[in-house]
Amino acid sequence: MSAPLKIIFAGTPEFAAASLQALLDQRQEKRYEIVAVYTQPDRPAGRGQKLVPSPVKQLALDHGLTVKQPLNFKEEADRAELASFNADIMIVAAYGLILPKAVLETPRLGCINVHASLLPRWRGAAPIHRALLAGDVQTGITIMQMDVGLDTGDMILKHTCDIKPSDTSASLHDRLAPLGGAALIAALDQIQAGTHTAEAQDNNLANYAHKLTKEEGNIDWTQPAAQIERQIRGLCPWPSAYTQTGAGVMKIHAASLVNDNDQSAPAGQVVLVSKEGVGIATGDGTLLITEVQFPGGKRIYVRDALNGKYQQTLGLGVMLGESV
């Protein structure tokens, strides 16, 4: 049996923790040795703003792994410490840092990335959300050999995942995270056996998955209902789609399309009130909103909002949007 691959793992959020867990699940096979885990520094969170470790750090500590948290790799000491682990390969999954060329070239086999898109479709920070916002019907995981570009490296392996009509960014994330772990192990097996191949990306097919902003959640009711429905799913749970009402900003967490050919109502007007939800006229079609959240409140069904103090806010003829 060949010697185990000495691995440095670099990642931060839950998505990355799933890939680290996949490696940990292989420990008994003794094919891989995790020599160090790199993750972002602890961040303040909650009302008390206490420092909270990342999901990757917590998982690593639970399994007795060495954890490192440099701010970046600009300091020679940090690069030297990375080299001291004498790793064969570095695995990067949603780490949150751009790695300089010197770091990419430090491990014997370089660095590979677990990316939540079928590259080159969505390069960048928010591939899951952008796939939903664009109306893609399929996405997946790409294991990529990293280079100095932004998700531009050669592709080693892909695993596909269908996007369901009901998917939110949260539900799609929860399917892609374990798929990323499975794809990682499959790619590592090929790399260790020397059977892997690397395919160059077609830059003409690339799109940039820009980092999300809260402003993207502001609903323009003159847009088609289908586009707004994707906006709601793609931005759920964060930063959330929202609109102005008489009771303040209302976040919309769930909605569905209504078969309605009546285009006489102005965009943003409430045209339907039922136990299922509230119908809003759009630039093309009607959107039935079913789950909302008002300032200071919890996520609730619209039928519950209509039974409470928001009955007038969501009544027939009410106009939603920036003009309120």
Description:
This protein has helices spanning 14-24, 55-62, 76-84, 101-104, 127-133, 169-193, 225-234, 302-306, and strands at residues 5-11, 32-38, 43-45, 50-52, 67-68, 89-93, 111-115, 123-124, 138-145, 155-162, 208-209, 241-245, 248-258, 270-273, 278-281, 286-293, 300-301. The protein has eight helices and 17 strands. With 324 residues, it is of the alpha/beta class. The protein has two domains: 5-209, 3-Layer(aba) Sandwich (Rossmann fold); 214-306, Formyl transferase, C-terminal domain (Methionyl-tRNA Fmet Formyltransferase, Chain A, domain 2, Roll). It has a seven-stranded mixed sheet. Strands 12, 13, 14, 15, 16 and 17 form a six-stranded antiparallel sheet that branches. The chain has a two-stranded antiparallel ribbon with strand order 3-4.
Summarize the structure.
One of its GO terms (cellular component) is cytosol. This is Methionyl-tRNA formyltransferase. By secondary structure, the chain is of the alpha/beta class.
Strand order of the largest sheet: 5-2-1-6-7-9-10
Poorly predicted tracts of residues: none
CATH superfamily grouping of the largest domain: Formyl transferase, N-terminal domain
Average residue pLDDT:
95
Based on Cα principal axes, name the global outline. Answer: elongated
Q: What structural category do the secondary elements indicate? A: alpha/beta
CATH architecture name of the largest domain: 3-Layer(aba) Sandwich
CATH topology of the largest domain: Rossmann fold
- Domain tally: 2
Helix content: 10-25%
Largest sheet: 7 strands, mixed
Distance between the termini: 70 Å
Look at the structure and give the CATH class of the largest domain: Alpha Beta
Strand content: 25-35%
Q: Could you tell me the number of beta strands?
A: 17
**Order of helix and strand elements from N to C terminus:** EHEEEHEHEHEEHEEHEHEEEEEEH
